[in-house]
Amino acid sequence: MFAGLPELGISNGEDLKETLTNCTEPLKAIDQFQMENGILLPTLQSALPFLDLHGTPRLEFHQSVFDELREKLMERVAIIAEGKEEDRYGKLEELLEKSFPLVKMPSIQPVVMQVLKHLPKVPEKKLKMVMADKELYKVCAVEVKRQIWQDNQALFGDEVSPLLKQYIVEKEAALFSSDLSILHNFFSPSPKTRRQGEVVLKLTQMIGKNVKLYDMVLQFLRTLFLRTRNVHYCTLRAELLMSLHDLDISEICSVDPCHKFTWCLDACIREKFVDGKRARELQGFLDGVKKGQEQVLGDLSMILCDPFACNTLVLSIMRNLQELLSQEALPRDSSDLMLLLRMLSLGQGAWDMIDSQVFKEPRLPHLYVVTRFLPAMMSVVVDDHTFTVEQKLPSEEKSSLTYPTTLPDAFNRYLQENRVACEMGLYYVLHIAKLRNKNALQRLLPALVETYNDMAFGDIFLHLLTGHLTLLSDEFGSEDFCSVVFDGFLLTSFSSKENVHRHALRMLLHLQHKVLPSYMETLTKTLEPPKQCSEPVKELYTQLMEKLEAQKKSPPPPDETPSLDLGLHPVTVPTTASTPTTPI
Known about the structure:
The protein has helices at 13-22, 26-37, 42-53, 58-82, 88-99, 109-118, 124-132, 134-139, 142-149, 153-175, 191-194, 198-207, 211-228, 232-246, 250-253, 259-271, 276-287, 296-305, 307-327, 335-348, 350-356, 366-392, 409-417, 419-434, 438-444, 459-469, 479-487, 498-511, 517-526, 535-553. The chain has 584 residues and is mainly α. Among the domains are: 5-121 and 141-148, no CATH class; 149-256, no CATH class; 276-359, no CATH class. Helix 23 (409-417) packs across helix 24 (419-434) and helix 26 (459-469) packs parallel to helix 28 (498-511).
């Protein structure tokens, strides 16, 4: 406990033991030891007997004085470090040399740690001693750990790894949230709110102003993204940079070539729309990538691969298409649309680019999307619009037009073969659901069984779709509609994809009282989890069965409105920056 005192010429318990062993008059020896090792203040000696009269032990007195002096010394260390004296760090290094031998003493340790914390460059020998001792490493300040980490990537990786795992767990938990709503979904939190998350704040603190540590974290994120294809690592890449931006850490922001691009894109994500001015700014950054610096495209593509960025880009594309329709203009003539497609394509190709290390923008794959896929999608829109107008005509003017059930071949083909087209197709389905267009939804959902890389069965789309389907809750009383949603789409892959099983159960937990009872009975048998299923699926199924059992005992009144749908049944969709103003 008192290791290090003899090195400084201060007596410890062993010295007292030796003195008492070898002396003839113990009381005198104790007095002498107290005189030599007590507080060397002559005027104090005469005052100490007063404490004895009050029954205050000497230990208590010395401890209180010691605590007070320690606090004063720690304050003084901070003042010296923050001062402007040229030799301020020399003074601190001198103090470190004197105090470091006592670093294992609990009472002195805070002083040593305070000195270490305020030294911009701790002597390497001391750093190695701290790193080698688990207890010292654990209690030292993050400022000291940064100096250790920057030359020990493996140790830094061990510290960062649990945080990255926690981040992914939190994102996936949000996608499987028990809340099902179109108003509060995965994309609802603002960028600034997301950056207040525990993991982002901890990583930001661990990095501080250290460019080397920042680069290490980015390398970890790239490696994990390559290994897992998990797009949430792309979100963290952008959030981390913007968190440092919020704190004005110019030492890092000024050297990250993606900073201004990410800052501009962050503003678009906040508005859920890329306006013309920001579109031109973003284009300027992309066009400004110089020869020899193409590697920055890898990081830009990763930032554009962030689901929050993709969501903003596709919502902007949908809105842009509506404006073109209202103006009767061709998509290929819109420079804004072409830029949005260019960025979406760059983001969608992030994994391939980083994996191949070929840093080139995709060669206009969106050209065919514009000339072939979009016309096919627009023909679906026209079919729907024609049928709607037809239904409003007087009976004598109506033709025998029936709602089409098939889709254009080009629409289906590009949905399966092109990821940019597929992303747009999926968001068009969400748009249709938002408009509560049952006919169009029944026509489109079966086409999603086969999509590029099974994108329609990804967690992000299923999370959004299940939330949007709450708007059509009353339609689940129809066997035809249930058949399209479940038999025609969800149940085609639930046995091979557990995430689809989970999303189907999540939706039924909220809509079970709306589903046709005979169909519900079939669904519960079909969706019963196999033995090897994960716990979350089993828990959801148990909750569903308990709800159904409770419903049998006390059925809700026929006119009861589900609480999740309250306020979500206006006739027109509210106009916001992220909501199309006219139905496609």
